[in-house]
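Dock flavin mononucleotide; give full complex structure.
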Amino acid sequence: MDAKPEMSAALRIRKESHLDLVLAGAGIVPATRNGFDAFCFEHCALPELDLADIDLSTEWLGKPLSVPLLISSMTGGALRAERINHHLAEAAEALRIPFGVGSQRVSLEGESDSGLTHRLRDLMPSVPLLSNIGAAQLIDAKGIDVARRAVETIRADALIVHLNPLQEALQPEGDTNWRGILPAIEQLVLALGAPVVVKEVGAGLSPSVARRLADAGVAAVDVAGSGGTSWAAIEAARGATERQRAIAQPFADWGLPTPQAIASVRAALPNIFVIGSGGIRNGVDAAKAIRLGADLVGQAAGILGPALDSTEAVIEAYGVTIEQLRISCFCAGAGDLQALRQVPLLPANGVFAS
Amino acid sequence: MDAKPEMSAALRIRKESHLDLVLAGAGIVPATRNGFDAFCFEHCALPELDLADIDLSTEWLGKPLSVPLLISSMTGGALRAERINHHLAEAAEALRIPFGVGSQRVSLEGESDSGLTHRLRDLMPSVPLLSNIGAAQLIDAKGIDVARRAVETIRADALIVHLNPLQEALQPEGDTNWRGILPAIEQLVLALGAPVVVKEVGAGLSPSVARRLADAGVAAVDVAGSGGTSWAAIEAARGATERQRAIAQPFADWGLPTPQAIASVRAALPNIFVIGSGGIRNGVDAAKAIRLGADLVGQAAGILGPALDSTEAVIEAYGVTIEQLRISCFCAGAGDLQALRQVPLLPANGVFAS
Amino acid sequence: MDAKPEMSAALRIRKESHLDLVLAGAGIVPATRNGFDAFCFEHCALPELDLADIDLSTEWLGKPLSVPLLISSMTGGALRAERINHHLAEAAEALRIPFGVGSQRVSLEGESDSGLTHRLRDLMPSVPLLSNIGAAQLIDAKGIDVARRAVETIRADALIVHLNPLQEALQPEGDTNWRGILPAIEQLVLALGAPVVVKEVGAGLSPSVARRLADAGVAAVDVAGSGGTSWAAIEAARGATERQRAIAQPFADWGLPTPQAIASVRAALPNIFVIGSGGIRNGVDAAKAIRLGADLVGQAAGILGPALDSTEAVIEAYGVTIEQLRISCFCAGAGDLQALRQVPLLPANGVFAS
Amino acid sequence: MDAKPEMSAALRIRKESHLDLVLAGAGIVPATRNGFDAFCFEHCALPELDLADIDLSTEWLGKPLSVPLLISSMTGGALRAERINHHLAEAAEALRIPFGVGSQRVSLEGESDSGLTHRLRDLMPSVPLLSNIGAAQLIDAKGIDVARRAVETIRADALIVHLNPLQEALQPEGDTNWRGILPAIEQLVLALGAPVVVKEVGAGLSPSVARRLADAGVAAVDVAGSGGTSWAAIEAARGATERQRAIAQPFADWGLPTPQAIASVRAALPNIFVIGSGGIRNGVDAAKAIRLGADLVGQAAGILGPALDSTEAVIEAYGVTIEQLRISCFCAGAGDLQALRQVPLLPANGVFAS
Ligand SMILES: Cc1cc2nc3c(=O)[nH]c(=O)nc-3n(C[C@H](O)[C@H](O)[C@H](O)COP(=O)(O)O)c2cc1C
Ligand SMILES: Cc1cc2nc3c(=O)[nH]c(=O)nc-3n(C[C@H](O)[C@H](O)[C@H](O)COP(=O)(O)O)c2cc1C
Ligand SMILES: Cc1cc2nc3c(=O)[nH]c(=O)nc-3n(C[C@H](O)[C@H](O)[C@H](O)COP(=O)(O)O)c2cc1C
Ligand SMILES: Cc1cc2nc3c(=O)[nH]c(=O)nc-3n(C[C@H](O)[C@H](O)[C@H](O)COP(=O)(O)O)c2cc1C
């Protein structure tokens, strides 16, 4: 997700155009691919609940959350990043949900801070704030040092390390040497002094990768599966060269669909903290993600528009999602998240058996 | 399905516009979702029957019916409700089928009687007439009293209580405290002195809900499943605010498809009286509903147009449905409803196995 | 398929318009429904055959046939029937395939002979000619007499009795008393002195109906399944009244798909002579029908256009079909019909199992 | 794939138009049929590999190859064939991949050499060059002689014999006597003194055909399955006569889909050298073909455009494919071809099982 220092001017411009593409929906492959439509809840016509009493509260990193939602990491061009981060931090505090900033590489390299400073934390004193660096940075000699600075600069509660091999492979100057990343994560866990979370960026974590990460001691994994933002689709639409676009095109639908990733990671690792993200469109999808095993549910592309706009717009967008999640619980007959994880799921358009 | 008293003027106007939306088909999600198309009858080229002798007669609530069909409950704006109810009652008598009126809440609160008076019964002396209230009204202190008045006002044979948690949750001032509804239904069954029927309004009754209702002593359940009118789709098209529309949108396909609901409720409760409704488009669908386990088959949206028009239009519409049901029996080789329940069903576009 | 005598003028006009609708394709529901596309042959890249030597010959009713094809029964309006029958008879002789005439009811009642006279036989001395009456005519007091005259009038090799309960039920003055038809067929078999074949007209014979017919002694069955001409689709497009059209509409896809009908009848009755028809579009479909168990394969709607045109047009159309059938055998590695019945079938778009 | 000598002028013109049709995409049936979309790799977010170190090298016919790709055999009209062959040979050398020339029949018959001479080998000294003749030529008295000359003329490393019964059957003057072809191949293997490879041309080799070929001693098979170029589709679009077009049309989707052909041939014959071709669109498809069991992956239609253009265009096109193949390995966590054959495959849009 990062620019090499020497390229940063050009790449910063490219990142601006990436934001525009994401906003225009270019990163999303057709909606029919979204795996969340393949199954549904069994409607409960007799909830025996008061909608107003449904308890969505949870906690993470020792802090209480009002709902099991998360603002997923997004870097942006420097021009807009500061505004976006400001709005998202204020909204996170108001909503009482965690906020993960985008990659801090550029800002740590001193080019532009994008608002990723001590002041960000002042906007959100009571909810988890998460740092973000790319896995490829870790294998640098100064990897742990960078990670520590990422956390300290914004006084974060934890550090997110993103795994994005496909994205790096499709980018002209991507970091494509991934040898030693797992040991580096192991080292980081021991050395950092703050919890480490590992995520993908839209191609999904498989159960076997999740298991290796759990064995390395990470505190949580975010599956960040396919079905939402596809960096390959974005590269295919607007790579720097014809050749780059051609290379990216058949990877537009590469990846583990989010529902499958959540369910299979949960099945493999019953006790790990799982964040479900990638293609979450609304609170019904969020409810399904939780039902399949997610502890928190993240969204990135879907809130970029509101984030550019204002703090209130982000709060309003999450307000809709929260209400949908609450109604999903109500109509599935689940009074809290624990109950939601037990309700029946049915195949959509399920083959009828007489 | 009801307006809070203090809101009734505004809501009455909204109900008028709901009727217009239903008439325009806005409540129906695309036809491909209709679960009835997933299976078909095995054609019988040698029926050994006289089409004229096919016996569709049945009985309900102690009264003989000519065919196993039901006019499902519909409230309308006060402006048109009286006309609709008049036409439907006359047609029910002529056709010898039961008629369930729409929610009586507004009329019981004295705002406008919508034709829901003693005179309605005079139009249909020999067939079952069913009252209608919402489940949320029951948990009011005066719940049983309201239920009793609903039955008495129109001299009904039975009372229908509708369960509509999703609809209430999506409406701005919906009744969303559903605690105590099951005990209230149990009380009602004991106290009312008339049979109690419980239905959904388009999201379906699951087998577990149906079992709880059966244990509470209800005389019949109407699954009112998904595949036909979707109140969420209507709210998504025309909620009062942008926010309401956004919240409703992902619920447009929420619910148990009618065929699945009928079959699974029947499997769970072999002896309960089951009404199959939700998305019935014609007499072939009706035949399939009966084959899957329905005792009666109801239609709402499909007859709203004729109901607004005239008594004759309703009779004509049902005439077509009845002829289709009769021909379905003939070509399935079934001489009566009992036989229809035994004929083979096949998957449509069934995977071919050589 | 027949007109009541007193209605014959009006109905003859209607039959003319039916021909026009069939020619315009109105009787065919969308091609995706055709069950023949669901499976395919395993290609044999090493046939070890000479295409020129592939032996498609067979025999029926004691007469040798060059290919296992049949011209299926079609009535037409009197205006064009004579021409059609003349062309088809000449083509049958030239092609050395059997020809089944359309219903002889109108011509036997003396209204118009449609070319269904002794002279027809003169055009096709060496191949089977089949008479045709409707099953409903058989239960008339004079049923067997009519059947006998149908055979004698054209000096037929056998009599086809068509079962068309759906078609009769959808027609305004259809024969809808089907009691006693099976015993009447049993009687006919004993009394007629010529083989009796029983067919549907596009809704399919199920295995249980086929078994009853076999027990009654019929010489062959023609499944005439769904996927091709649908009389309900024609009625829905152009019934006499709005009401008739509305009634017919949901029956447009009623029926047993031809491939399923052939395979299940063959499985139930390994030794009966089976004709596969209904929706055969070309020689690849014909090869599939034979592979599934058909002894002969019939086409109706697909040759109506050529039949109206000329004898040569019919020969040309069959020439294409025969060549396709021959190439199908070649590329399936089958040197004759016996071998074709043994080759592997695969699901089309078969789910890939790694 | 060949012209009878006496027809060669007319047929050469037809071949020119075939090239134009292939270039215009007329040979490809809609993309949805491509079986490669039905399954996908499990994404590996932690490859523990350096993209730069991924080893795609392999060897064939005793020569090292940089990647497991092959330029598949294509004849062209004489006007353009020489240019095409020149470009492809130069590109093969530069890319270090094998190149199979199109059918040598016309050139061996002395009409026009199409650049298929000793000089071709000079352009590609270090990589395998493959001759090409049709199986039907082998059963000629001079069959083995022709085969020997085909190899010698271009100093090939091996001879490809193509099996194309469907194509021959659909062509006006096709060779349709396929008796004795298998024994002729057996003879050829013994007599030729160079390895013999057998391929289809877009309809696929089944496991049973592959087994017969293996028993006959062939060195490798190329499944050349359906999903890419369809000669029937081309004939249907532009056969010489209306009749030819009509005959060809239902064969447009005839054949074994390439992924199925590869997987089933590999399962049947664990040790044979398998080339996977037919509908390969990019390096992700190529990776899937290898995963299913292919040793090399071939493309024809997809490189015709670049081949007409220039050597550089062919190199550029393969460069994209190779990069995609490399990234597929990287993101599947496979460091070489051996590892790629072990990674998990998942159904695309896999039914979700909760
Ligand atoms: C504009 C944009 C920028 C992103 N930048 C980062 C990043 O810097 N670090 C990171 O871990 N993920 C990044 N992501 C990935 C998201 O966190 C998320 O995993 C992915 O987009 C899938 O979620 P979605 O479908 O809701 O967008 C970014 C996503 C977007 C849309
Ligand atoms: C305009 C309209 C008003 C309705 N009002 C009521 C009502 O007051 N009470 C009730 O129990 N159901 C009501 N329903 C729900 C129907 O009775 C029925 O359960 C549902 O619409 C599914 O049937 P359908 O798909 O045939 O419309 C209403 C439906 C419509 C279309
Ligand atoms: C115009 C037309 C008239 C027909 N008339 C008769 C008839 O008189 N008797 C009969 O047994 N079948 C009749 N059929 C039915 C056909 O014989 C055949 O069973 C049916 O059309 C299915 O074949 P197809 O899909 O190839 O048309 C007729 C079909 C057509 C299209
Ligand atoms: C223009 C063209 C000419 C071809 N000529 C030959 C040929 O002469 N010999 C042969 O074995 N295959 C020939 N083929 C078949 C290809 O080698 C290949 O098996 C087939 O096209 C499937 O691959 P594709 O889908 O990548 O095109 C030809 C294909 C094309 C497109």
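Observed: Chain B has one domain: 40-347.
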